[in-house]
């Protein structure tokens, strides 16, 4: 009985704690040892072997190549590029947009994103979860900052004749990205066409056309 009460008390306390980022560090740093077995994140490299390059990345001044069908390019700087980000719950990306280029609707399963426009004008949008699916949208100019809450589908679209550039910070060492079109129409193997025909309320031929593009 006492142990059941303890368990209930524990559940009540633990369920009131909301973890809003990667778990906090219990040491100065835990530079990723990428050769190690990955459990949830990476094991720590021997701290005596850590040097400045473990916390360093160079090249974010370089424009990404936007010659692709969507006209945008994300240059990520997360734990893959900077092993010193392991366990720290933060990362950054540069995104380049060709004129009228789009970073298509996608979500980050593990991160909230805060985006700053460095050059150009962008229409951005968030779509809230079911059942409202409200589209919250705004046109941003140079110097404007916008937030995309964790898990919500969002996009950016260059609404100008010049290139646009943003720098965006994300609240995970490894935010992940799920691009809606690619996951739905570009999965390997395909989701059956009749499933997507029902989901999108279109003819299967429309689905085959879309699947052929991804
Ligand atoms: C950009 O990407 C395109 C398409 O992949 C490629 O043809 C082109 O050479 C690339 N440009 C640069 C500067 O790397």
Automatic annotation (TrEMBL):
It is found in: Secreted, Extracellular space, Apoplast. May play a role in plant defense. Probably has no oxalate oxidase activity even if the active site is conserved. Oxalate binds at residues 103, 108, 113. Pfam families: Cupin_1 (PF00190). It comes from the Eukaryota. This is Germin-like protein. One of its GO terms (cellular component) is apoplast. SUPFAM superfamilies: RmlC-like cupins. Disulfide bonds join 30-44. Residues 1-20 form the signal peptide. The lineage of its organism: Eukaryota, Viridiplantae, Streptophyta, Embryophyta, Tracheophyta. Keywords: Apoplast, Disulfide bond, Glycoprotein, Manganese, Metal-binding, Secreted, Signal. PROSITE patterns: GERMIN. One of its GO terms (molecular function) is manganese ion binding. CDD domains: cupin_OxOx.
């Amino acid at each position: 009985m006492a142990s059941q009460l303890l368990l209930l008390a524990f559940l009540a306390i633990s369920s009131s704690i909301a973890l809003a980022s990667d778990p906090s560090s219990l040491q100065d740093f835990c530079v990723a040892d990428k050769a190690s077995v990955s459990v949830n994140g990476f094991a720590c490299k021997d701290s005596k072997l850590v040097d400045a390059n473990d916390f360093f990345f160079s090249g974010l001044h370089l424009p990404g190549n936007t010659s692709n069908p969507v006209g945008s390019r994300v240059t990520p700087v997360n734990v893959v590029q900077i092993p010193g980000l392991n366990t720290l719950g933060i990362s950054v990306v540069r995104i380049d947009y060709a004129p009228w280029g789009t970073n298509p609707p996608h979500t980050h399963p593990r991160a909230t994103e805060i985006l700053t426009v460095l050059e150009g004008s962008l229409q951005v949008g968030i779509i809230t979860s079911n059942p409202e699916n409200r589209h919250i949208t705004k046109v941003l100019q140079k110097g404007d900052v916008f937030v995309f809450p964790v898990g919500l589908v969002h996009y950016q679209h260059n609404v100008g004749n010049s290139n646009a550039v943003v720098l965006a910070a994300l609240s995970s060492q490894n935010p992940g990205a799920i691009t809606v079109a690619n996951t739905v129409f570009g999965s390997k193997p395909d989701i059956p066409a009749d499933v997507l025909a029902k989901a999108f309320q279109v003819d299967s031929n429309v689905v085959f056309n879309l699947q052929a593009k991804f």
